[in-house]
Structure formats: structure tokens, C-alpha cells
UniProtKB/TrEMBL annotation:
This is tRNA-uridine aminocarboxypropyltransferase. InterPro entries: DTW, DTWD2/TAPT. The lineage of its organism: Eukaryota, Viridiplantae, Streptophyta, Embryophyta, Tracheophyta. It comes from Cucumis melo. It comes from the Eukaryota. The gene is LOC103495005. Residues 42-354 form the DTW domain. The keyword Cytoplasm does not apply.
Length: 363
């Protein structure tokens, strides 16, 4: 189907100011109708890697998807989903235990609920080593690969979640409009701000067995000035999950994992430009419930030739995932090959850029 990047408005046929004669209107309507049934004239795209067929990435992987024991949950900014240089696609194709949830900016208002798994529920009995399960968007459901029936389906079939443990309404850029939690009546919790509550050892201990977070967004209706609410995602965050994000309290792998009882079963990664990643972090306060980990690597990203790197050590999503897995100790054979695929994708973009420049100079 052809999508037009502009809106066409037709005048009232009875108006003396009608911009198009009826004959031309009829012809244009016929052309638009044909566009819905004729195959698209755009270049063919690979359904797996979403790249143009002539630069498909799929054949560049030297082995089938690698078995990564540490699960990866990628929170992907909506602007990255179809970006030609997005590297999360390489993680999804190259690793078996990867889930991607699309996250949008909060332009009006978003409501979050955080629920504790009920005793004997599917979530409560989930093995910490199991894969994450989540729902993203209106009807799309990601199914768990460890059970025939997804965790989300099992949760929906129970009486779970009669009330949320934590709920918050967030405005643009993370402004807190309202905040509530089940510990309100306990001494010392009434006057705490959201950041203090989320940092509370008591609350974090209550969430240590995992939790389910749901985000409801508000967006503008296409044909009116009103707003509609929709469920953007529902994610089950397994126990021993860690956020890969360089906050002030983030630990490096050597300081937070080696020589301690703490270990990582799931890694949550923000996928977007640095500005978008910071906004995602600020607009999703539940991320502050997780331990934060950072990579202490003084190196240039392979991205640096084609996308802006704020400073040394700020890496692409696939680079961050590969290096984090290696530092954690999850290093399946062939992991470095994913960086070779990424480098070849960068080469494709550089070649396209040179070709466009050459054509421009010849004019």
C-alpha cells in the first residue's frame, strides 16, 4: 500500500470555490483506489531484518541465533524501529533470548501500574532463568519460548492484579502528576517523593521476585482534537534484572558482580539516541527500581562515522549488549561475529552516502 506524506483535501462539490473539476476529482479518486490494490513500487525489503533486499543482513550471520543465557529486554524508542542504522535488529536476529518493546515519548500523559505477582501465579513461579514475556501495542503479544502458553496469557487467565503496588501518572519529560503506593500507611513513607520510594530498600526487597509493569499512554486522535488512551506495553520483569544505563549510582561489572552474591539473569537495554534514551529513562520511573550497570569502556563506537557519538564510551545498542554479555561472563561462541555484521551494515550506509555525494557533485 502506498502511503502519502501529505493530506489531500477536496472542496465541497457544490461550492463555487471547488478547487478541482469533477472530471479531475474522479480521476484522482480512481488513482488513489488503484494505489490500494496495486503492488507497491518501492524497493523490496527483507521481512526478517527490515533492510532493502540488496543489502539484506540475514546471510551475513555466520551461525544460527546464539544461545545467550542472560536474557535481553530492549526498550526501543519508536523513532528507532525503522531507522536504517538501528542495531537492535542485529541483536534480535543474532541472539535467541531477546525481546523488544516499543516505547514512545510521553507527549500528553502516561499512567504506570506496577503489580506484584500473586502467590502461586505463573509470574510468582517463574524460574529466574526463564525468558521475559510482554505485550506491546494494541494486540501484539510476544510469547514466551519456555512454555506452550505465554506468561502474559496465564496472568490474564487468573484473578491477579486486583490492585497495583505502585501507580504513577507521568507527564512530558517525566514530570510526576500523581503517585500512589501500597506502603503509604506505613510510618515514614507518607512524605517520601517518588525517587525516594523507588530507592527504598524495603520496597526493592518486596519487588525482588519480579514485577509486572503496564504503561497506558494518551495520544491525539487523528481526526479530532481529543485524546485516546491505549496500552503501550505490559512487561514482566523477571528477578535479577539489571538496567544497562550510566546513572550516577550505576556499578561497573567488576565492582557490582565479581566477588559478590549478586548475579544477572536479565539485562534491560534502552535503544535510541542518547537524548532519546535519557528521555525514556525519565519518563519510565519504574526503571529506577532496578540496579543500574554501566560499561567502563574508553572506546570509539563503530557508529562514529555515520551517527553522532556524544563522547568516548557511548556505544550502539548491539555493541553495548555484546560487551556487557562478555563482561558478565555470558560469551557464547560467535558473539563477536555480531559486531562484524554491524560493521558491514555501517559500511553499507557509508557506501550509500558516498554514492549520493557523487551523484550530487556530478550535477
Amino acid at each position: 500500500m502506498i502511503h502519502f506524506p501529505f493530506r489531500i483535501r477536496f472542496g465541497n462539490p457544490k461550492s463555487l470555490l471547488n478547487p478541482l473539476p469533477n472530471r479531475l476529482q474522479s480521476k484522482l479518486f480512481n488513482n488513489l483506489a488503484m494505489a490500494d490494490v496495486l503492488p507497491s513500487s518501492r524497493r523490496p525489503v527483507c521481512p526478517s531484518c527490515s533492510k532493502p533486499a540488496r543489502i539484506c543482513l540475514c546471510s551475513r550471520f555466520r551461525s544460527p541465533s546464539l544461545e545467550n543465557s542472560v536474557g535481553i529486554i530492549i526498550l526501543q524508542h519508536s523513532s528507532e524501529k525503522n531507522h536504517p542504522l538501528n542495531s537492535a535488529r542485529i541483536a534480535k536476529l543474532g541472539l535467541k533470548n531477546v525481546d523488544i518493546a516499543t516505547v514512545s515519548d510521553v507527549n500528553f500523559e502516561a499512567h504506570f501500574t506496577i503489580r506484584l505477582p500473586e502467590p502461586n501465579s505463573a509470574a510468582q513461579n517463574l524460574d529466574p532463568d526463564a525468558e521475559c514475556s510482554f505485550r506491546n501495542g494494541h494486540n501484539a503479544t510476544q510469547k514466551s519460548q519456555i512454555q506452550d502458553e505465554s506468561i502474559v496469557d496465564k496472568l490474564n487467565s487468573t484473578k491477579a492484579n486486583k490492585g497495583a503496588a505502585i501507580s504513577a501518572t507521568i507527564g512530558k519529560y517525566g514530570v510526576v502528576n500523581s503517585f500512589d503506593h501500597i506502603w503509604m500507611q506505613q510510618p515514614g513513607f507518607q512524605e517520601l517523593k517518588i525517587n525516594e520510594v523507588l530507592a527504598s530498600p524495603e520496597i526493592r526487597a518486596s519487588l525482588a521476585k519480579g514485577f509486572i509493569v503496564k504503561k497506558l499512554q494518551k495520544r491525539k486522535l487523528v481526526e479530532s482534537k481529543g485524546l485516546e488512551e491505549y496500552a503501550e506495553f505490559e512487561i514482566q520483569v523477571p528477578p535479577k534484572s539489571v538496567l544497562l544505563f550510566p546513572s550516577e549510582n550505576a556499578f561497573t561489572v567488576s565492582g557490582g558482580v565479581d566477588g559478590s552474591d549478586f548475579y544477572i539473569n536479565h539485562l534491560i537495554v534502552l535503544d535510541g539516541t542518547w537524548a532519546k534514551a535519557k528521555r525514556m529513562y525519565n519518563e519510565n520511573p519504574w526503571l529506577r527500581l532496578l540496579p543500574h550497570m554501566k560499561l567502563d569502556l574508553e572506546m570509539m563506537s563503530l557508529y562514529s562515522e555515520v551517527r553522532h557519538q556524544p563522547k568516548i564510551g557511548f556505544l550502539s545498542t548491539i555493541e553495548s549488549i555484546v560487551y556487557a554479555l562478555k563482561l558478565i561472563g555470558d560469551h557464547p561462541e560467535g558473539l563477536d561475529d555480531l559486531l562484524d555484521v554491524f560493521e558491514s551494515m555501517i559500511g553499507d550506509q557509508r557506501k550509500c552516502k558516498d554514492e549520493r555525494l557523487k551523484i550530487t557533485c556530478q550535477r
